[in-house]
Amino acid sequence: MPKGIILKGVGGMYTVFCNGETYSCKPRGIFRNIGVTPLPGDDCMFDVTESGQGNINEILPRENSLIRPAVANIDIAVIVIALSSPEPDFYMVDKIMATCLFKKIEPVLVANKADLAKEDIISTIKVNYGPTGLECFKVSAKTEEGLENLVQYFANKTVVFAGQSGTGKSTLLNAIVGHELMETGSISEKIERGRHTTRHTNFIHVQGGALIADTPGFSNVEPDEIEEDDLQFYYPEFEPVLGRCKFQSCIHINEPECKVKEAVSEGLIGSLRYEN
To answer: Residue 82 sits in which domain range?
Structure first.
């Protein structure tokens, strides 16, 4: 029985990719009985009848999943911010980063609009996100600066985009895929369209073997699944000093002799990240 990956699902039918071919498949009724809905990104076992109709027989265990967009087995979440306008919402960035790390998804920060970059924003990124050790790319969807390195980094990975409106996510997706995949427009236009539009996520193959979701991504993220005391473990730059505070129960806010606060004062941890 062949193994494939679900690229999209519309109206109860799913497109499954296997060995360079796509198959239109229907899930077995057992999934409905056990309350499992196949998602784009799912690895599955399927078969194809002589008539060409495919059947999804098994959904393999997921590494992770998201609700909006409803996708599974994501390797990389690209968090897009603008180096000009709109001003970056770093609180949103940090919420998305923590949620991704909790779900075992690699967050990658992409600073778009490099052709219009403001030095103060670049400085804020270096000071606060350099210590995280996470990948950061400076690109311009308009001029295509930096896109080649970004696409190379995505090789053979499953990728979704995230971030606030107006940062150029749709333009960036179009540039990477090589054709007009997403509508672009003003922020107000996109908000209005969003009220009346339901999109089905579809994974697109791009150069280097990556699968990229054709949705402008998610922005309304609350790391509700993370316990308050555990949040510290999803800030990578905290790791070198965790467990070294005077009190084992230290949550790094008001406690004396806190090594995290000391690291902030020494510039080893960005103050913006700490406050967020």
So the answer is: 65-213
